[in-house]
Structures are given as structure tokens and as C-alpha cells.
């Protein structure tokens, strides 16, 4: 195995910021390219940028993702408008943008005007149709019908199809059904895809019924696969895939990676996009017997050089990692001592530092030959990588490299 050359962690030029995220724009592009190679030709590659681009920063990742993806998926209308603004400011071509989440009446009209697609997930949408007529749109809203095939979340259940979607046949002047989608419940936690296959069958049945009633045109875009299914279930790739977590170089789960090896032979090379670092606020000795942090849960056995780091649970560093996590300083693993506080952690730098000069600590990412992965931090916090990255504070400075 090739050992990468040690890259010392360094701080950016502006000294005022507490902790910062480093975003590797090249890795974003390469991750989508890797997924495109796996999908083969004819499948549109969509990138899911909800949750502030999985915590990586929508504004900061958009230049790279907009260029590399065919479709962008968001939850909120606000994020869709931000993408249209980005396109106007940069003279970029209009991408297909789909709002997966709910929208109010005014927002729906604005989405139609901005040529943003919207998911229609239940019959309550019928109440918005008169307002769309009154708005005098130049072109109908492009709608994607969400079918709940077994997640039990949003969408028309099979029992609703076609009856509760029939209102759309009387609304073709303002709503054009451009797509149909569903979402899998259990592709990440398992190595057999039996439940997903039953969901696919249900989606196909819904499509048959919708086409028979002429609610869904034959050329409507069909999409169902998120990262895991896109890799593991070739039958689920349909017309477009919605790549979330893999965009950011992270695996949906370890089971997904294991299964991908079996299904694909060679797993796509996903590169983590994000590093999280900070400068120390103070470095000092604590005498043997000193306590560290709230609750006095840690007591120094020996004289201990500690670094006080300006990162806490407010920033998204989980309190549950107290007493378990490490950070990297000068390529050394440094245990987090005592509890994670709102705005601070205290780490043991006795072996990592030779004086009391400020240090740069890596909370996620490489430092020298060592690295702390998002998955490692998620394990310490008894959660999943998705939650760790999406909880990274929106206030943190994101530096694009
Ligand atoms: C979040 C989400 C995705 C992306 O899921 P990943 O596992 O992150 O790839 C796709 N589709 C829908 C509807 C989602 O909510």
C-alpha cells in the first residue's frame, strides 16, 4: 500500500476564526465522477445537497457540485432559489433542481417561475392548484410524484394510486407531471436487498397504474436510488440516481461497502471531502491530581500538558464522545480529557507538543500519517456519519481548497 506523504496540518491565514472546515472541491468532483463511472451511460447523476450539503456548506460546495452533477436535490425551496441565484451570478447553465420537501403556496408559485421541479407527495397539493392558475404562470410547474413504497414517510401509498392522484388530470394547465420517485427504507443496514426489491416492484406497479390513467406520461423521469441502492441495485438506477452521502466521499454504511465489493467487484474510490481543524486557545501544564472539565470526570495521573481547544457541542462536536475521542496534533493522537463542553474541549498534548506554543488540532481528517475519519467520530458518538457531518455548525468557516 502506498503511504501518503505526511502533510502537516496548518491553519489558514485569518487568525480570528475558532475552528474551520476544509473542503476539498476536487474530491467532490471526483466522487461524482466515480459514481458516474459505476452507473454507466444513460443514468443522470444527481447530487443531494440538503442539510447544508451534508454540513459541508451549500454555498461552498455549489461551484464544484453544480458543475459535476446533472441534477441537484434539495429539501427546501430556499436552497433551490440559492442555486438559481448562483447560476445567475456565475452565468452558469440552468441545472435541473428538485425540491424534495414541502413548499407553501407562494413558494410553489416562485418555484414554478424559477423552473424548479417540486415533489408532490399527497393529495393536499390539490388545494394549491387554484393559486397556480391565478398566478398566470408562463409554463406549468414541473411535478414529481412521490410514491411511498414502504418507507412509511411522505408519498402516495399504493392504495392511493391512482385515486388520490386523479386531481392532476384536471390540472394539466398548471402542473406537468415530469417525474415519479420513491425512497428506500432498508438498503444501508443489510447485505441482502430483499426489502428494496419489494419496494422497486411496488414502484413499478404504481408507474403502471399512473400511466394507465394518463397521469404519468411515458417519458416521465423515474428515480429511486440513493447512494447505497445506486451501487448495489443496478435495477434501481432507472433514469437518475440521487447521490447524497457518497458525494461527500463517505460510505452509507460498512455493510454497503462490503456489498459493493461483491456486486461491483471493485468499489468506487470515494474520497472524504472534509477536514475539521482548530487552533488551540491555550496550551499549559496541569499538575498531577488536577481535574479537567465539568463534573470532574477526569483527573490527571501525572503532570499533563493540555491544549484547550475552542470547539464544543455547539459546533457539532458530540458530547457523547467525552472520554473516548482523540484529536490529532502534530500527527499524534491526543485523548479528549473529561467532558465535551459547549465551546471547549481539553486534550492531552504531553506527547504531541514540546512547548506551550499554540498548536493546530485536527478533529476530522489527516494529520501526518494518521487520520480521524467521520466514521470514527460517529462510532465514538454512537451515531452514523450522516449525523456527524450534518450537525457541523452552519457558523463554522468553510475553506475551499
Ligand atoms: C437524503 C436522501 C437521498 C440521499 O441519500 P444518501 O444515502 O445520502 O445517498 C436520496 N433521496 C432522498 C429522498 C433523500 O431524502
Task: Describe the model.
27% of the residues lie in helices and 24% in strands. With 401 residues, it is α/β, with parallel strands linked by helices. The strands form 3 sheets. Strands 1, 11, 12, 15, 16, 17, 18, 19, 20 and 21 form a 10-stranded mixed beta sheet that branches. β5, α6 and β6 (141-148) form a beta-alpha-beta unit. α3 (58-68) packs across α4. The protein is elongated and about 75 Å long. It binds pyridoxal-5'-phosphate. Pyridoxal-5'-phosphate is lined by residues 48, 50, 100, 183, 226-228, 242-246, 252. Pyridoxal-5'-phosphate binds next to α8 and β10.
Number of strands: 21
The tally of helices reads 11
Instruction: Please summarize the sheet with the most strands.
Output: 10 strands, mixed
Q: Which kinds of small molecule does this entry bind, naming each only once?
A: pyridoxal-5'-phosphate
What is the 3D form?
Answer: elongated
Q: What structural category arises from helix and sheet content?
A: alpha/beta
Percent in helix: 25-40%
What is the quaternary state of this protein?
single chain
* N-C termini distance: 26 Å
Percent of residues in β-strands: 15-25%
> What is Rg?
24 Å
Low-confidence stretches: none
Q: Average pLDDT, to the nearest integer?
A: 96
